[in-house]
Amino acid sequence: MSLINKIETGYLQLLRILVLVLATLAILGAVWAGMNAAINYNAKPEKVDDKITLNGAAFTLDAAQAEQPRTADSSAKTDERVLRDNFASVVNKYAKQLSPEHVAPAGGYDKFLDKSLNDPEQGPEYVKSLTVYIDQAFSRKDIAAKAHGADFISVADKIGSAHLDAWQAEKARIAEAHKAAAEAAVQKQAGAMQSLYALSGLFATFVTLILLVVLIRIERNLRGVAKPSAEAGV
């Protein structure tokens, strides 16, 4: 009987150590799950830069190599009247150089700009960007060389079309970035909920294992009390 008791005691000791290890792992897992849930429960979409910056110096009518771009003036005001005047000033600057008959009078581009200014997908920022884009494109010698006389309007239209395509592509990219950021935030929030479920399960496991340790301890103590009694013949 003493050998059996020793074996049982050894097994109880091993079981106690195993349960303590498992309980430690459970509480560590619960802590990790709790931290993950706390961090991601109210996760917000990552910030996306909505600013669109287009480089008119990269515009090409053919396969000609682009010159080095000029630095755009980013301090221009967005007041509509100022934007209209800036646009007319830039276009007329090159019209005077390349095709004087196409110089527009004051307010001559207002009707053209009204559509962009009133378009929620474009607005003042679009006109501001278009003005810089035209300035950069016409400042290139290879572009200006093909815009003399009657060709001025045709080249200007192509520059405007290229800018519109680039603008729409950037808007689509930004919209996609916002969508991806929102989806990532939703996934983080879903992960946080899963972490909460894991936290509750791991904590329940921890409590169960601790109770098992207590029961094992009680069992060992009872065996310790019973052994002297048996030896005394009680």
TrEMBL record:
Keywords: Membrane, Transmembrane, Transmembrane helix. It comes from the Bacteria. The chain crosses the membrane at residues 196-218. This is Methyl-accepting chemotaxis protein. The lineage of its organism: Bacteria, Pseudomonadati, Pseudomonadota, Betaproteobacteria, Neisseriales.
